[in-house]
Write a structure and sequence with these properties.
The chain is mainly alpha-helical and about 400 residues long. About 60% of the residues lie in helices and about 5% in strands.
Length: about 400
């Protein structure tokens, strides 16, 4: 016999069931291309629905329609208690399942190898699995490996600087303005260009729909040329929806690269192919070689940008602190150079660890100054990434110099 408590429990289960169905519909629209995952999500709902049907029948009868069997009051009470226990257990189980549905998120699989050549083989094997076409993928690489433009070294020192200049938002050129005048044929390929890089403007043409289900770097570059679209930025855009991300070691080991790409390893899956090689990559990431000439170049660029007071009011205190810090490094170079022994045309000096640390502290560039340096570098380089045009005269080389120095000193 169904009691008032039973009806309340049934109503609560029905409400939870409808809530879970709504959540599943949301998940189905979100987790596209992953039927195996949705199958797993649907299992507890089907199981609970089957248990409800077994317990009460497909159509729930009213109290008046329930036949009264010849049972004793004690047997009836035991039967109702058993049903209540089963109902309560189902409610708690269902609450747990629905809370898991609300909080669940799919982890991203980061598969990393030492070289892109090794990634080619991994992608080839991925192509043969049942997951190919169901799990979206992308492959990350540097501009040096994936930029389709040729570097003009008379204008830029690196492809990073070239890319930053070419992807700035540009106004219509005089030629495009002329093409829009009456009597002049219109040229959409020029006049509609958003930046000075046609590949960057077309980057969204290169996506999971226009690429094969599994692709390596060569496939990405080939299709980039075919669609006149940028492989570098397309791969980064596809990472937002990718379930599997293939990349070299340094994309996960180097904090500078991780931060620039907003890669989060927490609660995700990391697979390191030939993990014995990663020790060398970690050592390389924590090592930074630079010359006094590179240091002076960074100081020069900071001096230039500091002259634009109005454009960088909020960042000026950071710039001034970085100028002071790099000037201290230059002083350290001068002081230590005087102590070097000259053998032929080579000057050499080897420090003991304690002596080296003390020499840094003497020039105010040691561990006591690191946290302030780290904070200033973080904000400066973030501005350089997000709004490079506001930092007039600063190249990507200076940003890389500051971040590499920060990484090494932070170890």
């Amino acid at each position: 016999m169904a009691t008032c408590d039973d009806n309340i429990a049934i109503t609560e289960i029905a409400g939870l069931y409808l809530q879970a169905l709504a959540l599943v519909n949301v998940l189905k629209s979100t987790l596209q291309g992953l039927p195996s995952v949705m199958c797993a999500v649907n299992i507890p709902l089907k199981k609970i629905k089957r248990n409800l049907n077994e317990l009460f029948g497909t159509n729930q009868p009213s109290n008046n329609d329930i036949p009264i069997a010849d049972v004793t009051p004690m047997e009836l009470e035991e039967d109702q208690s058993a049903q209540n226990r089963k109902l309560n257990s189902m409610i708690e189980s269902f609450r747990c399942e629905t809370s898991m549905l609300v909080d669940c998120s799919l982890p991203v699989v980061y598969y990393t190898t030492r070289t892109h050549k090794q990634l080619e083989q991994v992608v080839k094997e991925f192509r043969r699995t049942v997951y190919c076409g169901k799990a979206l993928m992308t492959i990350l690489s540097s501009r040096d490996n994936s930029c389709l433009l040729s570097l003009d070294r008379s204008r830029w020192s690196s492809k990073n600087d070239m890319c930053r200049d070419c992807t700035k938002s540009s106004k219509l050129s005089k030629e495009s303005e002329a093409s829009n005048q009456p009597g002049v044929s219109n040229k959409p390929s020029i006049s509609n260009r958003l930046t000075n890089c046609e590949y960057f403007d077309n980057r969204r043409k290169l996506n999971h729909r226009t690429l094969p289900p599994a692709f390596d770097l060569n496939d990405l570059i080939h299709n980039g040329n075919r669609l006149t679209a940028c492989p570098y930025y397309a791969a980064r855009d596809m990472m937002k929806k990718a379930n599997v991300v293939f990349c070299p070691y340094n994309y996960l080991v180097d904090p500078t690269i991780r931060n620039s790409l907003q890669i989060t390893l927490k609660n995700n899956i990391v697979i390191i192919d030939e993990g014995h090689n990663i020790e060398d990559m970690c050592r390389s990431t924590a090592t930074f070689n630079f010359t006094k000439k590179e240091l002076q170049s960074a100081i020069k660029e900071l001096n230039i940008v500091s002259s634009y007071l109005f454009a960088n009011q909020n960042l000026m205190p950071r710039i001034e602190r970085l100028q002071k810090y790099l000037n201290n490094w230059e002083k350290w170079f001068d002081d230590e150079t005087k102590k070097m022994s000259i053998t032929g045309t080579v000057s050499l000096k080897t420090w003991e660890i304690e002596e080296f640390v003390q020499s840094l502290n003497n020039c105010n560039i040691g561990i006591d100054s690191y946290h302030d340096f780290n904070r200033n570098v973080s904000e400066f380089c973030q501005r350089l990434r997000e709004n490079p045009r506001s930092l007039v005269g600063v190249t990507q080389a200076t940003g890389n110099f500051l971040e590499s120095l920060d990484t090494v000193l932070g170890k």
